[in-house]
Amino acid sequence: MSHYDSMQAAQARIIGDFRSDTVTRPCAGMLAAMAEAPLGDDVFGDDPTVTKLEAEVARLLGKQAALFLPTGTQSNLVAALSHCGRGEEIIVGRSYHLFADEAKGASVLGGIGFEPLDTEANGALDPEAIAAAVQPDDPHQAISRLLALENTVAGSAIALAQLQDCALVARKHGLSVHLDGARLFNAAASLGCRVGDLASVADSVSLCLSKGLGTPLGSVLAGDSALIARGRRHRKLLGGGMRQVGLVAAAGLYALAHNVERLIEDQRKAERLAQSLARLPRSGDGAWLCHQATNMVFVTPPKGQGEALLRHLANAGLLAGGAPRLRLVMHKDVDEAAVAALGQSILTFAGVEGD
């Protein structure tokens, strides 16, 4: 059997891929929209589908303008470069993607420092800690310029009031505010509010289209017209200028029209999985930990069993990520049968008998 045939056979055995909501594939309707999209050269500003997507995201987030970028990492980096200069710094949650998972690009490429803060249990920042982190006007210190927030954080939806409290402190000290809203639509669905309400706390917002919304790639940065003009220049500098990219922007427009309201279904799947796992042992040497937040369920088996659990699930055609703590992510491409199989497979591994 060839390598290609082996890969195809492995794919055929997969019941559900729970590693991330980035694994989603375009549906037939999305592919049709991509095939029919009018195209132009976006570096010249000539792609009408990109222009339409940027206008729609700006409208939804309540901002003046928006910029289509290939990745969320580049979107956050463009935001950092557009807000800050060399020798300035960003106050940010220690676990937030901009600091922890994006190769410190703002520092490496922009000469921008970070002042990381510990987060509260739900991933939010403490306004008092933000105030204390702002540097005095002193040549020995970097210049505090930007507060970077995130929503969701490890699946947890941060309430609007908490975001507002943080932003209020930032502005009191002369800082701008950026919001990494990669899964902002998931947060809005969970909190029962408009995505524009959550975006209103920030001067710039990065929104990912390739996670729960199910597009092949792409993020959008929204903010005022001046910031987005700077962002367009930084996007080109970073190699993010794209040509007939309306092919992909059309997928984003389709997702905004068809895949936003259904995000609450992913949270319901996560809730049902967590309920089924409530039968796991929760005390003693064999204790399990289980936590659900928006469309994610985090499962920690007893010490030393994480890798074995991953192999057990893979043998059952269920893909998961992380060890010792597994992150199980619900999305549009896993159905109820796959979720039920996942729960039962974990219970079987734990030696918990069926109902």
Task: Walk me through what this model shows.
- The protein has 355 residues and is an alpha/beta fold.
- A hairpin with a 2-residue loop joins strand 9 and strand 10.
- The strands form three sheets. Strands 2-8-7-6-5-3-4 form a seven-stranded mixed sheet, with helices on both faces.
- The protein has two domains: 110 residues, Aspartate Aminotransferase, domain 1; 222 residues, Aspartate Aminotransferase, domain 2, CATH 3.40.640.10.
- The protein is built from 15 helices and twelve strands.
What is the compact description of this entry?
With 355 residues, this protein is of the alpha/beta class. 43% of the residues lie in helices and 16% in strands.
Question: Which consecutive residue ranges, at least 5 long each, have pLDDT under 50?
Answer: 1-10
Helix/strand/pairing category: alpha/beta
Please give the number of β-strands. Answer: 12
| CATH fold category name of the largest domain | Aspartate Aminotransferase, domain 2
β-sheet strand percentage: 15-25%
Distance between the termini: 41 Å
The tally of structural domains comes to 2
Q: What does the main sheet amount to? A: 7 strands, mixed
Query: What is the name of the CATH superfamily of the largest domain?
Result: Type I PLP-dependent aspartate aminotransferase-like (Major domain)
- Would you tell me the overall average pLDDT? 95
Walk across the major sheet and give the strand order. Answer: 2-8-7-6-5-3-4
Helix content: 40-55%
CATH class of the largest domain: Alpha Beta
The string of secondary-structure elements, in order, is HEHHEHEHHEHEHEHHEEHHHEEHEEH
Radius of gyration: 21 Å
Please tell me the CATH architecture of the largest domain by its name: 3-Layer(aba) Sandwich
Global outline: globular
